């Protein structure tokens, strides 16, 4: 059995634990392969016990006094940790943010078309960032024409979506966020 096994570099998340010869405490509290307490002993004796069983000595907690180590198969432990991480990754939901851009002079038909797209995104549980872009001198009309246009969009979406952030100005853009209703 190899005494200096380490996780491969570049793996998704390296497991940073000390094993076998890397454990250099004068005394450790030892747990057996089944989790039973084997008592406090020197780390050399604990390493020898693990070697006799064909297993590894793995540090569980370095914060305890004395540090806690366990006799186990490190490869199996690493494999089970990786499986747990994959299961956790499957269970988490990723909310995607889509962006739909408008101009203050966007025509009625184009506006309706973009509103339909926003509704499709919201049905798929995505958040939507609605951006009204002002070019050149259009910025002068941001609080009148621009606000009127974005309010029209908000009114069309109010029944099917939740407005997460009311329209705000950020430079030359008026931004509003909508998402699925809770």
TrEMBL record:
Subcellular location: Cytoplasm
Keywords linked to the UniProt accession: Cytoplasm, Initiation factor, Protein biosynthesis
GO cellular component, one term: cytosol
Domain Translation initiation factor 3 N-terminal: 19-88
Keyword Protein biosynthesis in annotation: yes
Record domain Translation initiation factor 3 C-terminal: where: 95-181
Self-association and partners: Monomer.
Family: Belongs to the IF-3 family.
Pfam families attached to this UniProt entry: IF3_C, IF3_N
Name of the protein this chain belongs to: Translation initiation factor IF-3
Gene Ontology BP terms: ribosome disassembly
Described function: IF-3 binds to the 30S ribosomal subunit and shifts the equilibrium between 70S ribosomes and their 50S and 30S subunits in favor of the free subunits, thus enhancing the availability of 30S subunits on which protein synthesis initiation begins.
Keyword Kinase: no
MF terms in GO: ribosome binding; translation initiation factor activity
């Amino acid at each position: 059995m190899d005494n200096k096994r380490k996780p491969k570099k570049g793996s998704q998340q390296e497991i940073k634990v000390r094993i076998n010869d890397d454990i250099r405490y004068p005394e450790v509290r030892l747990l057996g392969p089944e989790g039973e307490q084997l008592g406090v002993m020197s780390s050399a004796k604990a390493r020898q016990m693990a070697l006799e069983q064909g297993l590894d000595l793995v540090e569980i907690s370095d914060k305890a006094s004395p540090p806690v180590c366990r006799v186990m198969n490190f490869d199996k432990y690493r494999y089970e940790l990786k499986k747990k991480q994959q299961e956790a990754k499957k269970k988490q939901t990723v909310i995607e943010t889509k962006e739909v851009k408008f101009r203050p002079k966007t025509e009625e038909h184009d506006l309706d078309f973009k509103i339909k797209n926003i509704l499709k995104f919201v049905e798929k549980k995505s958040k939507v960032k609605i951006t009204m872009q002002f070019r050149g001198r259009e910025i002068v009309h941001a609080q009148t024409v621009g606000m009127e246009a974005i309010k029209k969009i908000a009114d069309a979406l109010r029944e099917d979506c939740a407005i997460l952030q009311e329209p705000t100005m950020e430079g030359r853009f008026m931004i509003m966020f909508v998402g699925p209703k809770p």
